[in-house]
Write a structure and sequence with these properties.
The complex is a heterodimer of chains A (129) and B (185). Chain A is 38% helix and 31% strand. With 129 residues, chain A is an alpha/beta fold. The mean pLDDT of chain A is 93. Chain B is α+β, with helices and mostly antiparallel strands. In chain B, strands 1, 2, 3, 4, 5 and 6 form a 6-stranded antiparallel β-sheet that branches. The radius of gyration of chain B is 17 Å and the shape is globular. Chain B has helices at 5-14, 27-43, 48-68, 111-122, 126-138, 151-158, and strands spanning 17-25, 72-73, 83-92, 98-107, 164-169, 174-183. The N and C termini of chain B lie far apart (40 Å). Chain B contains 6 helices and 6 strands; from the N terminus they run αβααβββαααββ. In chain B, β5 and β6 form a beta hairpin. The chains are: A alpha/beta (129), B alpha+beta (185). At the A-B interface, α2 and α3 of A face α2, α3, α5 and α6 of B.
Chain lengths: 129, 185
């Protein structure tokens, strides 16, 4: 599958989806005016990838801040990935946050609480941007 | 009479207002003002979590104005370029905590729905708010709704005290709705 790269803006994150490597990275901040419009292509991409490919998939979130409507879309993404796992795909998610960002750490933990089958780890890193 | 900006400035200072935005609001203004607000809080050496909490409430409130204010400027078929009008104010409580107020026009007919929603949130503790937030996060978006319906719950979760609110009648059609959130320093 082709690569999908979307550069970051002040209210939307950097998106890097490498189909060959089975790697998706979402990095930055997310509070767009129209969350559905921004995330629809990304959701499509994940759906297609899970349907067409059989490779292992790694997803990395490095999000310093996201608004409440983004939180809903992230849940949708995670549910989609969990469906993949239930159907037998190998998928894992890393939620990365800075040790100073208590809110981001807590948000990661709250996503984790709501997932049963999807391997989801919260990784606290020191002094990264 | 001439407008006395100095009086306005003094009033804002006297009410311990750090920042006030009033008028048409667009996503670009939210991003710009939000960034300035964050830098200001960093100068004041507020804790990281405090800065992010104040910023996030500002974003939820301003985006609520953008999605729901009953006072708007738009041209037909140009939903994306629409502007909506509201007021957002950030300042200090006497205790040193931060307050974030937001106000905009609403239709009188919508008041009972907004009020019962807010009263419900005011009666929940932090654990119950968390449960409600998670439930709502997995629910289907209401057709035609621009938001996820999570903004008020998010504000309630971050507020030190139950959400404050008021409705002041403007005329037979509109009232002015304001909401207040307090973030611990």
């Amino acid at each position: 599958m082709q690569k999908l790269v979307i550069e970051k803006t002040s209210s939307t994150p950097y998106i890097h989806f490498d189909g060959d490597a089975g790697y998706l990275q979402i990095k930055g901040e997310s509070y767009p005016e129209n969350v559905a419009k921004f995330y629809t292509p990304i959701l499509e991409w994940i759906r297609n990838y899970l349907d067409q490919e059989s490779k292992e998939m790694t997803v990395e979130f490095k999000i310093t801040y996201f608004n409440s409507s983004t939180s809903k879309v992230f849940m949708t993404i995670l549910d989609l990935l969990e469906q993949g796992v239930i159907k037998g795909r190998k998928v894992s998610v890393k939620w990365m946050c800075d040790e100073d960002n208590d809110i981001a750490i807590e948000c990661g933990e709250e996503f984790k609480e709501d997932l049963n089958q999807l391997p989801f780890t919260v990784e606290v890193v020191k002094g990264e941007e | 009479m001439e407008l006395s900006l100095y009086n306005l400035y003094k009033d804002l200072k006297a009410q311990k207002i750090l920042l006030c935005y009033s008028g048409p609001i667009a996503q670009a203004s939210i991003e710009g003002v939000g960034d300035t607000l964050r830098r200001n809080l960093e100068f004041e050496e507020a804790r990281n979590a405090t800065t992010l909490a104040v910023f996030s409430i500002f974003i939820e409130q301003a985006q609520n104005v953008l999605n729901y204010s009953a006072e708007k400027l738009n041209k037909a078929d140009e939903d994306e370029k629409e502007l909506r009008i509201g007021v957002v104010v950030i300042g200090y409580e006497d205790t040193g905590d931060y307050f974030v107020y937001c106000g905009n026009r609403v239709y009188n007919g919508d008041i009972p729905r907004i009020k019962s929603n807010l009263e419900h949130l005011r009666n929940l503790n932090k654990d119950e708010l968390k449960v409600l937030y998670k439930e709502r996060r997995r629910m289907e978006r209401e057709p035609g709704s621009k938001g996820a319906g999570l903004g008020l719950i998010e504000m309630a979760r971050k507020s030190e005290v139950p959400l404050g609110y008021s409705f002041e009648k403007i005329d037979e059609v509109f009232s002015f709705f304001s909401i207040k959130v307090v973030v611990g320093r």
